[in-house]
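Morning F.,

Quick status update on the modeling queue. The single chain you submitted on Monday has been processed. Sequence for confirmation:
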Amino acid sequence: QAIIPRSRLEDGSGGLCFADVVKDEAGGSPQHLVTHCWSNAFSHLVAAVVASKMRNPCYQPYVQSLGAPECLHRLGAQAGERYWICTFCINQHCSICGGFPLEPRHGTQEYLQWDAARRDTVTKEVYPLCNCRQKKHFNESIVECELNKFDCVIEKLALSPTFSQVVATDLHFAVFTRAWCVAELVEADGLNIQQELILHDTDCLHTHGQSLTQLSVRSCKASREEDREEIIGKIGDTDAFDRRLQWLFFRSTGLLR
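Structure tokens below.
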């Protein structure tokens, strides 16, 4: 509703990533990477970033105050820190702007999930599609595709000793059912990146935390089946990956401790 229209070039030839549209003169590398689920409300994603800076493990208190002068005042100089968020930092006109993933069979749970993902989480209206002429690149375009390089991005950003990962959870912990997201978690942990879990509230943890004990990357999903297959292929030993994932959550200094 905002990012794709505002990042589209006026002549219709294509577009930019939104970060290039709003970049400042100073520039600089991100200090943090945010792992999140696209089905989460945008206000919740932003509130999770604010909560991280406020050193609050829950973002619910900030959802209603986003944009208020007092919120920016409390953030102070930290309001200028840079976050890598795929929504802004990937050029959507190179991939998803002109269509939705393949439509599943009507009447299935997969169809309901697909239909929900193509609608605005507030108005419930179907997102308008972009008709720009920029060529789209997915997994079959290994070099040109921007969607399959999260591991390279994390590895490069991790060169900064103060770089960290913020895990912005949604109300239903759907972030932990997305293949890209759990792969980012394990990749960042393997690079010894500081990780921080931000919850909507503690009730979410009590309600959904136990489900993570059964989490396996093989049951995770992606918007495109090709993406999921590529992630599984990169992982190789999924049993070892799942053990690492459980250790990441439940070790004595894990994300849920």
